């Protein structure tokens, strides 16, 4: 279960081989230590960078390795299959740089895209707000036009790695309160006067911290605007569709990782003489989860193919993320049940997946909003929001 999909390209196979080489040096014990101590997985990130894996999706003329979302999905799946969670250290820079590559200035490319290739702290995405939640058009963070620039005021929360990243990508409304928010994206240094970052007391079994970011009269020049003012929502979807596809790839990989553990255990454990994997009550839940993971894989790679060819991959991204997160969660639950009490022994390295894969049903974009979108746009049902 550690070999690449047989129907994928030679490039995907090369990605899988490179990931296995990096993971062989910094494996599960390394990641458990990073999670336990809150230490940045610097050696692993450097290994990914040295293998050219962090450059996937970045044009070669910008110093990247080329390729598109298809290769990013393969990278996420391969990482998961080696037991490496798709942390914010990897996924946030990947989707932040998509709109910068498309509409950013050379200075913004230099400040945001280039650092993502090295594995060092690079950029955090300040988007989610405590009151708006998934209703991004209700955000209150506001950017007011001033002479030669803008002044930002507001608050963001659940911002991955904001305590380390030297750069921030910030979404703010640039029209009057009370109206449907007109969003603009800004790229600015994290040490700009008026910005303060407070780590939150959140555990998701990942080494990076979640933070609240405050903007109090933060003044930035016009050059901090990404693309055109007011077009931030359109630019966001350039990054958010790939984000869901990459997140799906990570969930698929981790789901297969834990299923492999379950298969090995259920094939050996035989308290009544017959391996418990022969019992349908053990086998069927794992088999059903495997079907879901394979279906999610079809959605994810098809969505990546559509996106890379310039098509609208919105609903394919939704379906991939939905199927991957629910099937990976089902896989984990079935394996825990097969292990019984042994699943709660930390040394068996299963329990950590409970938090990790439960989170994937909430972010990026919770599954209820995904179902709302599918109901409205694919089925033609009326909107409830």
From TrEMBL:
InterPro entries: Acyl-CoA_Oxase/DH_mid-dom, Acyl-CoA_Oxase/DH_mid-dom_sf, AcylCo_DH-like_C, AcylCo_DH/oxidase_C, AcylCoA_DH/ox_N, AcylCoA_DH/ox_N_sf, AcylCoA_DH/oxidase_NM_dom_sf
Cofactor: FAD
Tree of life domain: Bacteria
Domain Acyl-CoA dehydrogenase/oxidase C-terminal: 230-378
Keywords: FAD, Flavoprotein, Oxidoreductase
Domain Acyl-CoA dehydrogenase/oxidase N-terminal span(s) in chain numbering: 14-120
Pfam families: Acyl-CoA_dh_1, Acyl-CoA_dh_M, Acyl-CoA_dh_N
All copies of domain Acyl-CoA oxidase/dehydrogenase middle, residue ranges: 124-217
Record-stated family: Belongs to the acyl-CoA dehydrogenase family.
Protein name: Acyl-CoA/acyl-ACP dehydrogenase
Organism: Mycobacterium pinniadriaticum
């Amino acid at each position: 279960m550690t070999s690449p999909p047989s129907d994928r390209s030679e490039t995907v196979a090369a990605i899988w081989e490179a990931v296995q080489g990096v993971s062989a040096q910094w494996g599960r014990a390394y990641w458990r230590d990073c999670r336990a101590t809150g230490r940045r997985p610097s050696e692993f990130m450097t290994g990914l960078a040295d293998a050219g894996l962090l450059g996937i999706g970045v044009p070669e003329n910008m110093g990247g390795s080329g390729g598109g979302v298809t290769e990013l999905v393969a990278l996420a799946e391969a990482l998961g299959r080696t037991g490496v969670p798709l942390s914010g250290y990897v996924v946030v820079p990947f989707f932040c740089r998509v709109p910068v590559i498309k509409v950013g200035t050379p200075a913004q490319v230099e400040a945001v895209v280039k650092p993502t290739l090295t594995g060092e702290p690079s950029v955090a995405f300040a988007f989610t707000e405590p009151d708006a939640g998934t209703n991004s058009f209700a955000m209150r963070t506001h950017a007011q036009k001033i002479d030669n620039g803008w002044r930002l005021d507001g608050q963001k929360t659940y911002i991955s790695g904001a305590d380390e990243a030297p750069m921030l990508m910030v979404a703010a409304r640039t029209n009057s309160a009370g109206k449907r928010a007109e969003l603009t994206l800004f790229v600015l240094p994290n040490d700009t006067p008026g910005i303060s970052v407070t780590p939150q007391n959140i555990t998701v079994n990942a080494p990076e911290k979640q933070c609240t970011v405050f903007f109090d009269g933060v003044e930035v020049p016009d050059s901090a605007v990404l693309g055109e003012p007011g077009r931030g929502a359109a630019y966001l979807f350039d990054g958010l569709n790939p984000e869901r596809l990459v997140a799906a790839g990570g969930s698929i990989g981790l789901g297969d990782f834990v299923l492999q553990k379950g298969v090995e255990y259920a094939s050996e454990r035989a308290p009544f003489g017959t391996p418990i994997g022969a019992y349908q009550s053990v086998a069927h839940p794992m088999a059903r989860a495997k079907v879901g993971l394979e279906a999610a894989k079809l959605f994810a790679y098809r969505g990546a193919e559509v996106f890379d060819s310039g098509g609208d991959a919105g609903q394919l991204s939704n379906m991939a993320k939905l199927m991957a997160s629910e099937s990976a969660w089902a896989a984990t639950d079935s394996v825990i049940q097969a292990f019984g009490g042994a699943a709660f022994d930390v040394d068996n390295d299963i329990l950590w997946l409970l938090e990790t894969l439960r989170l994937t049903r909430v972010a990026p974009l919770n599954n209820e909003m995904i179902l709302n979108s599918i109901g409205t746009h694919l089925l033609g049902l009326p909107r409830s929001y």
